[in-house]
Write a structure and sequence with these properties.
about 130 residues; mainly alpha; two-stranded antiparallel ribbon; about 45% helix; elongated
Length: about 130
């Protein structure tokens, strides 16, 4: 059974890779024939790991196993918007994706921090 920390770490790795791809798109905004790429999480989410249900009583219903962590995701090219020079980068869309990725990463770091604080409390070391 994987830990919450492992799931948060996997999601953070996905967000780091996606941020790099978005930065590459912005850097190539003036490159002719360049199509923007994005990293799309696998079905089931990239932060999901092998979480099993804890059984505290034999009379409880059995839970299913979670999705296995396969890889970060798949790379897709966006061909919906192409300029006259063949470039498909839309800076406004890339900035929105960058902001979304940043907010998600910040959320993951806050959740990670709270997880560490809970572990400290459980060990009796307080906050």
């Amino acid at each position: 059974m994987a830990s919450v920390s492992d799931a948060l770490s996997a999601r953070m790795n996905y967000l780091i890779a996606r941020q790099g791809m978005i930065a590459s798109n912005i850097a190539n905004a003036d490159t002719p024939e360049y199509l923007p790429k994005d990293l799309v999480a696998r079905a089931g989410g990239s932060a999901r790991s092998n979480f099993g249900m804890a059984v505290s009583n034999a009379m409880h219903m059995a839970g299913g196993s979670g999705a296995k962590l396969k890889s970060l995701g798949s790379v897709v090219e966006d061909q919906r918007f192409v300029q006259h020079n063949g470039n498909g980068v839309r800076i406004d869309q890339e900035m929105l994706k960058m902001n979304e990725t940043q907010l998600n990463y910040r959320l993951m770091t806050e959740l990670y921090s709270k997880q560490v604080n809970l572990q400290r409390i459980a060990m009796g070391r307080g906050r």
